[in-house]
Amino acid sequence: MGFFLEFGCMLKIGITGGIGSGKSTVAKIFALLGVPVYYADDAAKTIMQTDALLIQQVKAHFGDHMYDSNNVLDRAALGKIVFNDKDKLELLNSLVHPATIRHSDEWADRQTAPYVLKEAALLFESGSFQFLDKCIGVSAPQPLRILRVMRRDNISRNDVLARMYKQIDDNIKMKLCDYVIRNDEQEMVIPQVLALHKTLLQLAAEA
Ligand SMILES: Nc1ncnc2c1ncn2[C@@H]1O[C@H](COP(=O)(O)OP(=O)(O)OP(=O)(O)O)[C@@H](O)[C@H]1O
């Protein structure tokens, strides 16, 4: 079948994994195959600058001074509040996640492919998996994930561990996924993506 749908039902597929698992890298391989990809973590940063309702909610809960007169967010000030206070982080997430879901749904409505991917670190934590047809998990052993992030972000092992421990355990996450791609040093990742792409096209054709 041709890749683009003239009519029919588009599938929404999530792709997630722990920090350093390679979910963005794997999502980019799907993108090379022509699959539209929504990068939720990047989008969230943009939405915080552009979504009028979200800006209003952040100001109401965290103070008007979180934004300057041009509505530019003071990330450092907001970060200082939420990274030292779990409840405040949950509050911020409870504002940002629905805005991201709203935005990604609007984005998906504009696509014409048989399936689209939503890449997000917190697919399960944010509740956005409920609005998706299937979820892909990207997994890699923890020591490899730590090394990758240390190299990519030029940060210490302890800094990576601090970020890692804020996320749901990867083994639990993978059990919640419908498909798992192993992005380690044993398995080749591209053949796995090609095989899954074929499966998802088939699924979309039958939907
Ligand atoms: N199969 C691979 N071989 C070599 N390097 C890889 C592989 N997969 C990912 N990487 C590298 O590991 C690093 C982490 O990958 P990536 O940014 O895709 O992970 P992520 O799961 O999206 O991480 P985060 O949750 O922090 O956004 C990147 O520098 C990427 O280039």
Automatic annotation (TrEMBL):
GO terms for biological process: coenzyme A biosynthetic process. The keyword ATP-binding applies. InterPro entries: Depp_CoAkinase (IPR001977), P-loop_NTPase (IPR027417). It is found in: Cytoplasm. Pathway: Cofactor biosynthesis; coenzyme A biosynthesis; CoA from (R)-pantothenate: step 5/5. Coiled coil: none annotated. Its EC number is 2.7.1.24. It comes from the Bacteria. ATP binds at G20, S21, G22, K23, S24, T25. It catalyses: 3'-dephospho-CoA + ATP = ADP + CoA + H(+). One of its GO terms (cellular component) is cytoplasm. It holds the Pfam family CoaE. CDD domains: DPCK. GO terms for molecular function: ATP binding; dephospho-CoA kinase activity. Keywords: ATP-binding, Coenzyme A biosynthesis, Cytoplasm, Kinase, Nucleotide-binding, Transferase. Belongs to the CoaE family. Catalyzes the phosphorylation of the 3'-hydroxyl group of dephosphocoenzyme A to form coenzyme A. This is Dephospho-CoA kinase. It comes from Chitinophaga ginsengisoli.
